[in-house]
Structure formats: structure tokens, C-alpha cells
Write a structure and sequence with these properties.
Largest sheet: 5 strands, parallel
Strand order of the largest sheet: 2-1-3-4-5
Shape: globular
Helix content: 40-55%
């Protein structure tokens, strides 16, 4: 199952167990995963690398995923500012989805995450970016 082979994922998840589970899941599908525990660490990683996709929890202490994504979308560097991004959240109402899209996420996934669906969405977002010249 290497549908994510060659892709790098910046995973932002404050919960250690959730971070480990998502890392193992994405690696199972072939992705290289750089997992961090919050918004500040994510911005530090983005300063030195451009991942294929960003997956971020929304409900994090300190700075939430919405704020993180708005700051990423405001970056001057086009490769980093347009990196495809998936919002992960325990909340799955229409308002939650709208908030994620307005913050700059390209997709919204409720927790608990279905591994096969997550892998498919990552692959699709990366493929779409390539099609539009990213």
C-alpha cells in the first residue's frame, strides 16, 4: 500500500497518542511523516521544508488549527502558502466545515479518521495541486 510513496506530510497534532496513530497510518501508506505537536513547531518546520501536504488538528491548546492555517496562507512564499491542507477535528457540523475552508484548508475530516479515506484525500489533493501548476 504505497499510494503515498514519495510524499511528505507535515502532521500537526497535539495529542501524543493521536499523533503516533496518524503517523503510523500515513507511513503504512508510504508517506514520510514529520509530526509536530503544535502551531509554532509547524511554522518552524515550514521555514526549512515544503511538505507535499499539511494535516492539522483544529482543537489545539494555545493556537488552534484555524489560526495556524491562516498564518500559513499568508506566507509570501507561494510553494508553502499553497501547500494542500487537511483539517482534522472531532467536530463535523456544516459550520465546522465552513470554518475550515474559510481558514484556508482544502479538506475537512472528522475524527476518528478512516485510514483509507485519509490516504485517498492526501493523494487527491497532491494530484490536484500538480494539475493546477503547483
Amino acid at each position: 500500500m504505497d499510494i503515498l510513496k514519495g510524499l511528505t506530510v507535515l502532521l500537526v497534532e497535539d495529542d501524543p497518542d493521536g499523533r503516533e496513530m496518524l503517523t503510523v497510518t500515513l507511513e503504512h501508506y508510504g508517506a514520510d511523516v514529520d509530526a509536530v505537536d503544535g502551531a509554532d513547531a509547524a511554522r518552524c518546520r515550514l521555514a526549512i521544508q515544503t511538505p507535499s501536504v499539511i494535516i492539522s488538528d483544529i482543537g489545539m491548546p494555545g493556537e488552534d488549527g484555524y489560526s495556524l492555517m491562516r498564518s500559513i496562507r499568508a506566507l509570501a512564499h507561494p510553494d508553502k502558502s499553497r501547500t494542500p491542507a487537511i483539517a482534522l477535528t472531532a467536530f463535523d457540523t456544516a459550520k465546522d466545515r465552513q470554518s475550515a475552508f474559510l481558514a484556508g484548508f482544502d479538506s475537512h475530516m472528522p475524527k476518528p479518521v478512516r485510514a483509507d479515506l485519509l490516504a485517498s484525500i492526501v493523494r487527491a489533493l497532491v494530484s490536484m495541486k500538480k494539475c493546477v501548476g503547483g
